[in-house]
User: Fold these one by one.
Assistant:
Number 1:
Amino acid sequence: MSFTNPIIPGFNPDPSIVRVDKDYFLATSTFEYFPGIPIYHSRDLIQWKLIGHALTRTSQLQIHTPEPGGGIWAPTLRYHKGTFYVTAASFSRYRPQEDDRVWPQGFYVQTTNIWNDNCWSEPIYFDQVGFDQDLFWDDDDTVYLSSTYRKLQPTSGVKLKDFAVHICTVDLSTGHSTSEPKLIRESKSGVAEGSHIFKRGRYYYLFTAEGGTESGHCEWVSRSTHGPLGPWELGPNNPLWRNGLEDEVQNTGHADLVEDSQGQWWAVLLGVRPVRRDGRWEESVFGRETFLVPVHWEDDWPIINEGKKISLQTTGPGLYQHVIDVAWRDDFNDPKLQLGWYRKNTPMTTDFTLTERPGHLRLHGGPYNLSVPSSPTMFLRKQSHRFCTWETKMSFVPTSEHTEAGTVLWWNHFTYSSLGLRKNGENRIIRFRSSEDTVVEHVLSLTKEIVLIVECGDQYRFGYREATESDIIWIGTVDNQITTKSPPVGAPFTGMMLGLYAFGERQRCLSPADFSYAEFR
Ligand code: 6LW
């Protein structure tokens, strides 16, 4: 049977998966966004539904002004004796290898009720540093923590990152390591990371992502009969597959495995799907997404996707075609915010309400505009389809020339385009600000409500109309190649989002911005 990849479109890298009876759960990275670590659920590995997040309280997640691509990296989701565990690391800077002092400490949170966000515990921090933490319970219940950090003795003479996988035993009640860290995998590429350890039959397996998350990305396997401390024997066919720069799916790696109830194994992994335009590859607007491929075993070594490259149509036993619907809408009728909205960084104050004006998301804009590293009053959703339209209806009566509310196409605080309403003397104006910082303004002869539209495709086209009119006035476009530019600092680890915002410039908005719906169609 054939099915469509990615199984979770939109930015969802570093997937980690677990099965409990008939239910599969999957977690991905969230970087600088809040809440942290989405938990998706599926019964068939193909259709996934967001059921909550592991980090929803400010006591669990404090990220303030990180570089783009900082924040929460690479969860591992595991289940042991009735309890779910999620590990992660939180970064303020994205390039720890340039400054050994900012290596993060990983942590885990746990719950016995994965269906309820509020049940996840407070974090317990590990004292082994690094990122890409993995937990493995051996048969005697000894717990092993592996993570990636820079080798203490860098390889002499070779300029490598020296990211290597280290392991120790850990006491989960305190997070304290109980053995010396042992290096279990380093790579000639200079990067061995994303470790996941499993046991199958008499073998322990160590999967590692190697070569870095860009074009050199790939996946290796080792196995051991002794245990997680090794010695580890490298597989005969490493890397397990290799997608290249001409393939429709690229940069693939960072795999995690799961066995279904029929004994069939599967791997989830990350990949990007750039688009070929005018003879060259355009960066994917979605960033890194979650893919699924079948795994079978030969001589107790895993063969991923029948040894073939990862592609958009994938074949696997027992699965079926599933088209992910582009249509999504929030009418803000629920007093609780729908799942799938993200804030940039941990919000410091409550700056929104769904109850003050029922049927509306009311934003009380805070003092940060969208260009600063702090947390503005902004709510974002991931873009998951290339061709779609984003639309929202807003009423906003600015009382100051230094406030604005509207809609945003968001990559990071260096590269975003916004369409917002402002006051200019006695006029109200609509202001389009492109990712290249060019500005177009139209004076509005306006009734209260305005519909803001972004058409997504090979470029993003911004338009608006007064709520009582049907004609859209198009005010500006930005090309995808501009919207996906790498930030001057930080990493392009995330993907495109669209959202709603209100801000004052170094002052709060004294009038609220009310949004009556937001939709993708
Ligand atoms: C992830 C790591 C990686 O933790 O990217 O370059 C990080 N490698 O495996 C963020 O997704």
Number 2:
Amino acid sequence: MTLRTLIYGARQIVTVTRNRNEKLLCGKDMHDIGIVKSDAVGLSLLIENEDIVAIGTDDDIAREFEGVEVDQKIDATGCCILPGFIDAHTHPIWAGDRVHEYAKKLAGATYMEIMREGGGIGFTVEQTRLASDKDLLVSLVARLKRMLHAGTTYVECKTGYGLEWPDELRLLKLLEQARSHVPIGISITYCAAHAIPKNKTAEEMTDDIVNNQTKALKKLMDEKELNVNDIDVFCEKGVYDIEQSRRILLAGKEIGLSINFHGDELNYTGSAEMGAEIGARAISHLECISDEGIRAMAEAKTVAVILPHTGYILRIELPPVRRMIDAGVPVALGTDANPNAFSSAMSISMNLACVLCRMSLEEALAAATINSAAALGISDKYGSIEVGKKADLIICRCPSWEHIIYQFGDHTHLIRHVLKHGAIV
Ligand code: NIG
Ligand code: FE
């Protein structure tokens, strides 16, 4: 049975890829996103089950589909329709908070100083271990619902506050469970190598991930107990070095995961060059990327996931996004939502990307939709408004789509409906 939904009367439809079937946008194409506008007539979008089947003026769609039964009509008079945001980098499953560290950071303590004193990720790992499954699931689901209602229809979710296998496995299982509680799309990333546990060295932890953890993970994936997409590591001076990172990432690749990791964040480590060499689909942060790293990522078409909120909160220099875009690196955006960078609003990431990284509004939107989809390997079905793609949409009550970015941190009142796979959520 076909369920048809017609959205009509819209003022603007921001298609992002102009129905050209692009899987990611680079260079000038990031600025040249398809915006269908009409002040004189309304615009329609027809959905069959989960998929977009037609886009056009109200009159054209009415004529083309005359006599076709529509089950649900959504009046979008005066509204703008955008693709749902795709958050390419989050750490959503944890307990406790780090508000006590916030004041320390404001007073000048660095991220690594706090981490070395036992704070940071180590603190959150302890709090997460102490929390019950129920409490972790409840807080995870609440965070995911908040994201969905703020327009994020697909999100990358990392583990990483377990570190040791039994704790990481618990987080993986809870992330799986969350799928049945919230209709947001979830891409799971295995990030046991997020920090070094107290009782191990980085080398011992690397051996454990390569020899034991990834093997155990593969077994559960083969048995269809878990559906994990990517492998991650915090490749950073004083955490996992470049060779340990390479081993961890290749062990993940070996079991069928895609490479998507934290690199060149606080120090230059050669992450971008190494990631491009081993076929990483995405690398996040890149505040300290080299020119050679930019060249390597552009050539390999490895997606750079920019997290402006993190640089902002840590008061570090932001990545050289203009140089990346000019060199042809596909740039995506994420919130990095975690107890350090406490925001899951993609509108804030886009605003910071524009102001601090000097991206245009169009580039920021392309980065938050089609290129984030590419970072997760899902841009064949998600990330733009195109015939044949999934109907993950935001219907906004504003005179033009830019308001979603312009109204800094205050955009949710503009969102009239979020649609996931064609259904209002
Ligand atoms: O992307 N850099 C490592 N991971 C996170 C921070 C996680 C945390 O501090 O809890 C990041 O910024
Ligand atoms: Fe992160």
Number 3:
Amino acid sequence: PVHQDLAGKRVVITAGPTREALDPVRYLSNHSSGKMGYALAAACVERGASVSLVSGPVTLPIPPGVNRIDVTSATEMLAAVESQLPCDLFIGCAAVADYRAAAVSEHKLKKTDADSGLTLELVRNPDIVATIAARPDRPFTVGFAAETQSLETHAGSKLERKRLDLIVANDVSREGVGFGSDDNAVTLLWKTHDQIRHLELPLQSKAALAGAIVDHIADRLT
Ligand code: PMT
């Protein structure tokens, strides 16, 4: 039996990609499968938390005991997260699209002539973890950072810029790690007394890694 160190805690987790419509048949998205976020949701339930999992479109089953809320776009994801507040812990594991189409075409976009390209106008999506971390009633807020270079520098700057309590840095350029894989390896970064500390969690299944991440969070929550 797992130690019930999250008993009585309300946890909200985002997982999977978002899809940003361009027209009735096309969208912008990314390769997130939802596996990492779903593993975190299962790990939190196992330790006694009540968990809402706000999920982009993925093909995974709902982990037992988890309240899953399905969304498509980043704006829907933010609204769904806000509908689940207040909570004690928020984990933003979703690969949220940074941009969406400035206007979604009502009809299928048509090709014009054979030679010319197509320019799409995009606008910024709201930043979900930063929005939650900026609330007066902010929960303990954990973000992820998917990076392909300068992992710790980029993750460290996201930790500060988004005012997070902890960031999980994921080097997604490594083979067998990150998007879509069953295994993952990450570095946790957080600040104590103005100093950035880190902890490397080696390659293991996303289920085992989720347990290790939640161990670290539970220590800092209580
Ligand atoms: O789903 P899997 O296939 O299992 O893959 C797992 C994963 C690689 C998707 C996951 O481990 C991961 O790294 N998730 C974060 C992906 C991401 O979008 O990272 P980012 O560096 O672009 O974003 C930084 C943080 O800001 C993240 O917590 C993200 O959820 C959040 N964000 C980003 C943009 C936005 N508009 N709103 C956000 O909240």
